[in-house]
């Protein structure tokens, strides 16, 4: 098996799409960009075209620095892509729950990956959460088409225990029939009393759960 890696490369979205079109058996795709303003800027239509080229991918890893600029198009991200990622088993995604565009893209990917077995969200640090709220974004009744029948493992790092983070977590748990492990790694700045309340919300208080056997692991990340 050969591996191709483009490091510190300036590339247009057109060239990237052309390259991926010629990789019909691609099983793993990682995109890590740190200065997108000078590299690639994706519009909604280009976002859709990108995942048309990744129909065979089993492992997908994307950094938030790239996700952030999905919102350059004013149109709303689609809930369904023309081509579902039916082979995708593992999704690793850097996300800030403060940014509406990133959440929209995350939900789009999850909605179009019916065979996901593992989701790992690496939460990017945000200094000021502000007063951001996304009313009803994560209401399970509003996501009736979301099915995670094969998801066994969910991991979220640098969890701040902010309202919409918890609502997203509850949405995934409510839609995952065979979820075995939900591992939450708290940001070290989360207070102990907030950690206790979070544990109570997840374990003691009733809320819709598709899998009654989910094992919750809540641990604190070390200070760097």
Automatic annotation (TrEMBL):
Residue ranges of coiled coil: none
SUPFAM superfamilies found in the cross-reference section: RNI-like
Matching SMART domains: FBD (SM00579)
FBD domain span: 145-219
Domain of life: Eukaryota
Name of protein: FBD domain-containing protein
Native organism: Lactuca sativa (Garden lettuce)
């Amino acid at each position: 098996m050969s591996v191709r890696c483009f490091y510190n490369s300036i590339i247009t979205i057109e060239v990237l799409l052309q390259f991926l079109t010629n990789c019909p058996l691609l099983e793993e795709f990682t995109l890590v960009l740190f200065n997108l303003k000078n590299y690639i800027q994706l519009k909604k239509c280009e976002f859709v075209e990108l995942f048309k080229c990744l129909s065979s991918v089993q492992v997908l890893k994307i950094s938030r620095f790239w996700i952030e600029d999905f919102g350059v198009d004013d149109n709303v991200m689609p809930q369904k892509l023309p081509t579902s990622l039916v082979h995708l088993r593992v999704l690793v995604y850097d996300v800030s729950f403060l940014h509406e565009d990133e959440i929209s893209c995350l939900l789009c990917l999850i909605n179009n990956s019916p065979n996901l077995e593992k989701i790992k969200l690496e939460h990017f640090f945000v200094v000021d959460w502000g007063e951001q709220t996304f009313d009803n974004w994560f209401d399970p009744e509003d996501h009736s088409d979301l099915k995670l029948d094969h998801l066994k493992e969910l991991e979220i790092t640098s969890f701040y225990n902010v309202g919409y983070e918890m609502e997203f977590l509850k949405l995934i748990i409510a839609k995952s029939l065979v979820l075995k492990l939900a591992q939450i790694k708290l940001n070290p700045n989360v207070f102990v009393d907030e950690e206790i309340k979070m544990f109570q919300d997840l374990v003691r208080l009733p809320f819709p759960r598709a899998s009654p056997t989910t094992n919750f692991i809540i641990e604190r990340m070390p200070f760097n």
